[in-house]
Amino acid sequence: MLHPNQFHVNEAWIAFQLNDTPIVTIRDGSFNCVCLMDAASCYIMGHVMVPADQSEPSAREAKRLLRLGWAHKSAYPGKLLVPTGRYQTDLAAEAKRQGIAFVPVPASHLRSFTSDARQEFREFLRGKPR
Question: Would you say residue 130 lies in a domain?
Answer without folding.
Answer: no
